[in-house]
Amino acid sequence: MSTTTTTRRLTMAQAIAEATAQEMARDDRVFVMGEDVGKYGGIFSATTGLLDQFGPERVMDTPISETGFMGAALGAAAEGLRPISELMFVDFFGVCFDQIYNHIAKNHYMSGGACKYPLVITTGIGGGYNDAAQHSQCLYSIFAHVPGLKVVVPSNAYDAKGLMTTAIRDDNPVVFLYHKGIMGLSWMSYFEGSTNEVPEAQYTIPFGQARIVREGSDVTIVTLSQMVQKSVLAADQLAAEGISAEVLDLRTLVPLDRAAVLASVAKTGRLLVADEDYLSYGLSGEIAALVAENLDTLRLKAPVRRLAVPDVPIPFSRPLEQFAIPQVDNIVASVRGLMRFTLA
Amino acid sequence: MDATSEQLLWMYEKMIEIREYEETMVKVYLEGKLPPKIQKGLAFDIGAGPVPGEMHLAAGQEPVAVGVCAHLRRDDTVVGAHRPHHFAIAKDVDLNAMTAEMFGKVTGLGRGKGGHMHLFDPAVKFSCSGIVGAGAPQACGAALAAKKLGTDAVAIAFFGEGAANQGAFHEALNLAALWKLPVVFVVEDNKYGISVEKSASTAIASNADRAAAYGMPGVLVERNDALAVFEAAGAAVARARRGEGPTLIEVNTDRYFGHFQGDPETYRPKDEAKTLRQHDPIPALATQLRQRDLLDDEADAALRTRISARVQAAYDFGRNSPYPAPEDALLHVFAD
Amino acid sequence: MTDIILDDAVWADVDEGTEALLQEWQVKEGDSVEAGQVLGVAELVKTSHEIFAPSAGRIVRLNVAEQDTFARGTVLAQLEA
């Protein structure tokens, strides 16, 4: 019997489905619920193949009743089952957010640790394909803002499988947000890099560990999700101009790898946060605050710069959407701008 | 309540307009989205082409729109859902501006910001949204306003049978009955909530049976037929205008295309749409019109030519209009 | 030599000129296959279709690479009895 681990290239969707299938095979308590997760395999292919493998008792198509099935996920988790509950688009969180932020997030705390809720909420995020204001948001900041939810945002297939396995095994509520534009769907244009080598065997990636996707010395780009792929393309362009950009993929927002952010910024002295969520009151502000709080131990050569959606709903029309959502060009321009500074 | 000749002809023409609009969109939507003109490695690119994004077409569901809207005035409110074209056309939304909106042009209803699921035409009190169930409470609000302002305007909430399992639906129904609001809830049962059949999502057979639980009459229209819808809607709208409160109508209708364009529809029997088209409501109404001497071959040909021209003009307007400037994305977050 | 193509019926309702995407091959050049065996998967618009071996034999050539698109009637691969 061979002990070598084989790898093959998987799309991020395939990686998520594989992680789920392997955990479901390993642990009878894991089951999936959501809209169109069964026969359809998930609108963004996150549950493809699961119904055939595990049957309708473990892969359950729900009515359009988010409050109903999110609340049911909580109740089932309280009884020791391990539900994976899919919210089709993160934009729909409004119809069930009470169950998520007042109960799923808080019950463990309010019970003084007595009750556990081992559940995963998977959801599709992101724009860039003209799905307009109610179907294009990222919103991970909103989930990260409420204490009690772990927040995971993979940028590629390899990470997605490891992080999803960790999420399912975690005894806490985990919100797993996958960007539709990097799932490797055959019907949506893509950025290179999200489809990559994934081991067949199971593996985990711990939460709270950011990853340096590309080393650099002149500027740190702190980023996540599809924006990682855009940042890598930007870094390639910048390298040709003699600018060395380090791309740091956060991977999880809760827990957040603060040490990695600070170490990188201490090294380069310049920080750009590239975020596809709204600018104000979110992730990019959090990273900027983190650095500001540590100015006694690191030195900045330039002011912090944040690139994000400029506080407008995502517009439908192509030129408007391309303007609102940060593009590779915007990242390049922002970094060039940062390079013009060399503060004491 | 019988339809007048004018109403019959209006419904017929509107159904033809809707059908032609949707059938045209099938082709236009695909422009630029298929290989070899798209990114390598894709079979379809949803964000490419002149009409990008999602597209939900209503061919087959025309009777629901025309049967209800035949009773509406300009100052009555219609709130639709993610499959809105037939309601918009039946409510006399500006067809050119509606089409330009789907092309993302600055001449669109929303200046290109909303797109196909978010059409707003305040001149005819039409709006729609992409969040399932969200329209029901909003229609209640319009009805509440009519009551407070002392008009006899009514509000219609259109949504699918899938939405009837969403919390907002249940809250809206109770509110409407409690406050005796002049609203009519119209459930379009096209049997599928994306891939899930009604029997797999709803514990009872007909949402009309839910109405009594909320304190209002429930009417089931079992045929996908404009006159059947007309009759049920007429009674409901009249009831609302008299101040007697809300009604729930459920119509069994047929969705000819997929949930969205590009939907592989693997959850549906392969020839189901072909079978459904054998009961096409448009020729059925034509037969009714001919029986009443309201239509003959010549008149039919003439009106179809006129309608084709109108639809074509709308698509041309959409194509030829300019895009907004990119920085326009920053405008209209707040009113001045 | 036998030509392997995507079932022509699959193109019936599709506009002229539309190409399909070769998603993946499940065999390599040199493999022996049985009649009716699934050799690969193609996607046309948004529907997946399997590519079948019309007869038993050995795969001599794969003419279209994974993630490339191809037109109706294209010889995707060839097999030798």
TrEMBL record, chain A:
UniProt keyword Oxidoreductase, yes or no: yes
Alphabetical list of SUPFAM superfamilies matching this protein: Thiamin diphosphate-binding fold (THDP-binding), TK C-terminal domain-like
Keyword terms of this UniProt record: Oxidoreductase, Thiamine pyrophosphate
UniProt keyword Oxidoreductase, yes or no: yes
GO molecular function: oxidoreductase activity
NCBIfam families membership: PRK09212.1
Protein name: Alpha-ketoacid dehydrogenase subunit beta
Species the sequence originates in: Thauera mechernichensis
From TrEMBL, chain C:
InterPro entries according to UniProt: 2-oxoA_DH_lipoyl-BS (IPR003016), Biotin_lipoyl (IPR000089), Single_hybrid_motif (IPR011053)
Named cofactor requirement(s): (R)-lipoate
Annotated Pfam families: Biotin_lipoyl
Domain of life: Bacteria
Lipoyl-binding domain: residues covered: 1-80
Record PROSITE patterns: BIOTINYL_LIPOYL, LIPOYL
SUPFAM superfamilies assigned to the protein according to its UniProt record, in alphabetical order: Single hybrid motif
Keywords: Lipoyl
Full protein name: Lipoyl domain-containing protein
Species per Swiss-Prot/TrEMBL record: Thauera mechernichensis
